[in-house]
Amino acid sequence: MKALIAVLPGDGIGPEVVAEGVRVLEAVAVRHGHQFTLQSADFGGVAIDAVADPLPQATLDLCLRSDAILLGAIGGPKWGGSDPLRRPEAGLLRLRRELGVYANLRPVAVHPALRSASPLRPELLVGVDLVFVRELTGGIYFGAKTRDAFSASDLCSYSVAEVERVTRVAARLARARRGKLTSIDKSNVLETSRLWRETVTRLMAAEFADVTLEHALVDSAAMHLIRKPSDYDVIVTENMFGDILTDEASMLAGSLGVSPSASLGDGTRGLFEPIHGSAPDIAGRGIANPIGTILSVALLLRHSLGLETEAQEIEAAVYRAIDKGLRTADIASADVNGGRAASTREAGEVILAELTAGA
Ligand code: NAD
């Protein structure tokens, strides 16, 4: 197949981990006879340095023409200026809005060999295999804001259509997995949550009667996620609750470095990125974990290009490499390789070797 893929390495460790993701994409293309055209562009802090805009028009145009976008990470202390529109994060919010990607998918699967890297007791992690679907373009982060000397407010609003479309993404996923959807809200207090719950209930009864639906309040879900995370299959929730709960859930996997994400809209085009940031504390040292980015490449192939076999090959290569002892510094332990950690490049090499060797 032919595809145009925009590559936005970004800042800090972004370029280091994206380089390994690109090598995996190129290897998949050779192995399966695909023609992937990869085009890089400035985004985030590097774009601010180059043209004083975190999302230059040329970068946005490239993304809008592409079949999929692979992003590293953006931001860092250098770009913490006072003008919020000139900050790297403003570029990311704008890119998500322009692409219309309203559903953010974050799979959390804890590989048995990495259970000891999690702060949770290993026995709590047995069987954990869940996907968060976070609403990404509505809610309190996008509502009107007010501020005077004595008070401030942020408006949280959702429409029925916004709730329906993200619920459909989550329900389709649940249908293809274990058939269970948990919707998280705060309907005992918030009017937006009451609308959320009623809408999800109605839509699921009308279109997804075969998927089991449960509702949970965000406070008790935050607790249950730590107490018995294996209970969950697919979870759908609004923007701010999802922001908080997905960071909590990422700790189940042990390190921010191993988790991928996909942001999807109505079509197949999506934005794929590891869940971590630009990690300025380790940038330039070649020690970042590229697994979150490489697993994001797998999501890109699955969700934007429909290449399920290729996606599974990458995931299997990553898990075989971990089984055989691949550990970067963030997941190193004294029990494996005497605690010796692989560099970013070495980790990429090991995964590539597994990919080309096959099962
Ligand atoms: P971070 O995710 O960059 O780093 C948190 C900690 O995790 C650090 O100690 C870091 O070294 C470690 N870490 C992260 N990714 C790793 C990897 N792949 N391998 C090994 N260790 C890894 O979060 P932060 O420090 O809060 O933020 C740093 C910058 O990144 C900020 O400017 C923030 O705004 C930005 N950020 C960007 C995104 C994004 O691009 N989507 C997301 C989160 C944070």
The major pleated sheet works out as: 10 strands, mixed
What would you report as the Rg, rounded to the nearest angstrom?
20 Å
| Strand order in the sheet with the most strands | 2-1-3-12-11-4-5-10-8-9
- List unreliable stretches of 5+ residues: none
- General shape: globular
Fraction of residues in H or I helices = 40-55%
Number of domains: 2
Order of helices and strands: EHEHHEHEEEEHEHEHEHEEHHH
The helix/strand class is alpha/beta
Proportion in β-strands? 15-25%
Listed once per kind, the bound small molecules are: nicotinamide-adenine-dinucleotide
Head-to-tail CA distance between termini = 23 Å
Number of contiguous helices: 11
CATH class placement of the largest domain: Alpha Beta
CATH architecture of the largest domain: 3-Layer(aba) Sandwich
> What is the name of the CATH superfamily of the largest domain?
Isopropylmalate Dehydrogenase
Mean pLDDT comes to 95
CATH topology of the largest domain: Isopropylmalate Dehydrogenase
